[in-house]
Amino acid sequence: MSYKIEIAKGSLACALGEGPHWDAAKKELLYVDILGQGVLRYVPATQECYRVSIECGTVSLVVPVENNANQYLLGIGRTIQLMEWDGKSPKPTSLKILHTVDNEDDRIKNRFNDGKCDSQGRLYAGTMGYLEQSTLKLDDKKGTLYSIQGNKVNRHFGGIDISNGLAWSPDDKVMYYIDSFTYRVDAHDYDGKTGILSNPRPVFDLKAEGVVGVPDGMTIDADGNLWIALFDGGKVIHVDPISGKKIGEVKVPTGKVTSVAFGDPQLDTLYITTASKFRKDGTVEPEPGAGELYAVTNLGVKGLSAGYGYKGN
Fold first, then answer.
1. Which CATH superfamily groups domain 4-297?
2. Contact 170/150 with Cβ under 8 angstroms?
3. Confidence category of residue 227, pLDDT binned at 50, 70, 90
4. CB-based burial of residue 212 (10 Å sphere; 0-12 exposed, 13-18 middle, 19+ buried)?
């Protein structure tokens, strides 16, 4: 694989970059800085990047609201919020809480992690238990996967450690899902009309395949193969979910690789978010290339689709 990887020109680095989303209509990449509490908008054509500060908590996901140019749905802590932002200002015009989840006493320190919209414009987003940064101790099995559409919040399943990567198959009948500490990718039958998930089964087991690293964010290409970011693995792996085998990889110049999304007008660039290295006291330890947004070209494949926006009803 004669790919080329480089820091995306003009992009801004993050403490904990996550959640890349290619907006085909605007030809721009959205991503978040979870610990840095920011949402970023990167425009490859002009090599410009803008950052808006989210002062009310950790922001873990961003998706644009369809047909509303300045509206974005965010995961902030245990809430889903609607942000109005002009795309350039350092502060949002407004933030409004739409939903709050995990209200039980033993889950009040939970937060949303990864999230994406399906082809119908529903938001699927999962939570994770409290992670103590100094010890990296997780309050395990406290997460839940939800889907959100309008005023409805549907609970799909719980007992999750760290809710992470999501992707839908080319025929839109399967949803692939990662709970990071299971070290595997599961497939669920998916009903686009109702949003119901059923028949969960494993399709790729990292430990059984000798893959080092924690599975994090994920996307899918037009051939139906998965691209999975490996936190503490320093790479993105290319996986055939039908055979359950790794068929390739992209090495990244830093260890903490967090998520992936295909972008650019032809969906032929793979964007990769990464995280900085943290000391036990929670401060950032300088490491060249850590926290940067990377762009990978010459992969010989294209993404299945651009990111879907939130329809809200």
1. TolB, C-terminal domain (2.120.10.30)
2. no
3. very high
4. exposed
Beta strands per DSSP E along 118-256: 123-128, 131-132, 137-138, 143-149, 152-160, 163-168, 174-179, 184-190, 197-205, 214-220, 226-231, 235-240, 245-251
Q: What is the DSSP letter of 221?
A: B
The annotation status of 216 as a binding-site residue, yes or no, is yes
Per-residue pLDDT band for 313 (boundaries 50, 70, 90) equals low
What is the rounded average pLDDT for all residues in the chain? 96
Residue 74 tokens read as: 């965010």
Q: Transcribe 159-170 into DSSP letters.
A: EESBEEEEEE-T
pLDDT tens digits along 61-70: 999 999 999 9
Q: Decide if 8 contacts 21 (C-beta within 8 A).
A: no
**Could you confirm whether 118 is annotated as catalytic?**
no
Q: Which of 311, 312, 307 shows the shortest CA–CA distance to 115?
A: 307
Euclidean distance between CA atoms 215 and 268, whole angstroms: 23
Q: Is 111 annotated as a binding residue?
A: yes
172 annotated binding-site participant: no
Positive or negative: CA dihedral 269, 258, 67, 154:
positive
Looking at residue 309, the DSSP 8-state letter turns out to be P
Looking at residue 136, its pLDDT comes to: 73
Is the pTM for the entire model greater than 0.90? Answer: yes
- Rounded to an integer, the average pLDDT of 141-153 is 97
Of the listed 23, 102, 216, 264, which one is catalytic? 216
Q: Give domain limits for the chain.
A: 4-297
Cβ neighbours of 283 (radius 10 Å): 9
**198 backbone φψ class: left, alpha, beta (φ>0; ψ -120 to 50):** beta
